[in-house]
Specification:
The chain is of the alpha/beta class and 339 residues long. It contains 12 helices and 12 strands. A 6-stranded parallel beta sheet has the order 2-1-3-4-5-11, with helices on both faces. A 6-stranded mixed beta sheet has the order 7-6-8-9-10-12, with helices on both faces. Helix 1 crosses helix 2. The chain is globular.
Length: 339
């Protein structure tokens, strides 16, 4: 038998009205209670009935989601967390994977989501024309990438602060030859690699370390790219004693390259990543942790709240917390190593 809202309420130890508010992203429910209700709803297989609500509200009970790379870990994790929130509240997801330039151009030209969705979650950064096209839909808009922009609720982190903490950690350990594996070939208009590179350069300057362009390499935000980039850095006339990888996946590729070159981590080379990927702890990676799934869930809840409370004031930007996680891949440089 299909679980009812009362079944969820009894199992979670709350009222049916609290279940309704929690699953629809409304205010008045603590995060702890909201998470408990979502977990119980998922366990019981409960989803809110849409038929009556749709007739009364004229909604489609569908959320449009646009992504640049649905197969990448970051975007997949955000999408999965958001979809769970939408599903628990009785909404379907209409997904558009816009990694190819032609598919992106076609989407923003034709806007196939018009009159088909109640809101849009964008996991790519639209330019001015694309932003205007999305605003023309007249539905709530949210994103988990980039900075605040008119008409959108953006849930994200401070990339610059996070990258500064990573590079500063290496400087404080005593490293002077600090390389960086970036993702300059990422999605169109993506500001993340730009902000993280600025942080890298700022910390080097702050520490009085001259920037060496030979210590930068593009890793394409993939494990394979990170391995190629680390191999390139090792071929420099004066290789780095430490490397900041702008993502954990690139950092894992760097670790593989170092192992292939019979170099020990962190004795020969220290490595720090960014994200706190689900496998980061497995490989003992020092990294900057960001709540990737939390950003997807928060953005989804804010969209649902805008749908249920259209006249209320809603935040334009929500900044999520980040923190350094120290594990086994960083240590002071060996005295005899190149500096």
């Amino acid at each position: 038998m299909t679980a009812s809202i009362n079944d969820v309420a009894r199992a979670a130890g709350v009222s049916a009205s609290t279940v309704s508010r929690a699953l629809r992203g409304r205010t008045g429910v603590s995060d702890e209670v909201r998470d408990r209700i979502a977990a119980v709803a998922a366990e019981l297989g409960y989803t809110a009935s849409r038929s009556a609500s749709s007739l009364a509200s004229g909604r489609t009970f569908t959320i449009g989601v646009v992504v640049p790379y649905v197969g990448r870990w970051f975007f997949g994790t955000v999408l999965d967390a958001a979809e769970q929130v939408f599903s628990a509240a009785g909404y379907d997801v209409l997904l558009y994977n816009l990694g190819a330039p032609e598919s992106r151009k076609r989407f923003f030209t034709k806007l196939p989501v018009r009159k088909r969705v109640d809101a849009v979650l964008s996991l790519l950064i639209p330019d001015e024309a694309e932003s205007a096209a999305l605003r023309s839909l007249g539905v709530p808009l949210a994103s988990t990438v980039g900075v605040a922009r008119p008409g959108f609720t953006v849930v994200g982190i401070d990339d610059r602060v996070g990258a500064e903490s990573a590079v500063r950690h290496l400087v404080n350990l005593g490293h002077r030859r600090i390389g960086m594996i970036s993702g300059s070939s990422g999605p169109l208009h993506w500001t993340t690699p730009i902000e993280r590179r600025r942080a890298y350069l700022d910390v080097l300057a702050e520490a009085g370390i001259e920037h060496d362009p030979a210590l930068e390499a593009d890793g394409d935000y993939t494990v394979e790219g990170g391995e190629r980039a680390m191999t390139e850095l090792l071929a420099a006339s004066r290789p780095p004693t430490a490397v900041f990888a702008q993502s954990d996946e690139m950092a894992m590729g760097a670790l593989r390259a170092l192992r292939r070159h019979r170099l020990r981590v962190p004795d020969d080379v220290s490595v720090v990543g960014f994200d706190d990927h689900e496998l980061a702890d497995v490989v003992g990676l020092t990294t900057v942790a960001q709540p990737v799934a939390g950003q997807g869930a928060a953005a989804a809840r804010l969209l649902l709240r805008q749908l249920d409370e259209p006249d209320a004031e809603h935040p334009g930007h929500v900044q999520m917390p980040i923190r350094m996680v120290l594990r086994e891949t960083t240590a002071p440089p060996r005295p005899r190593g190149p500096q």
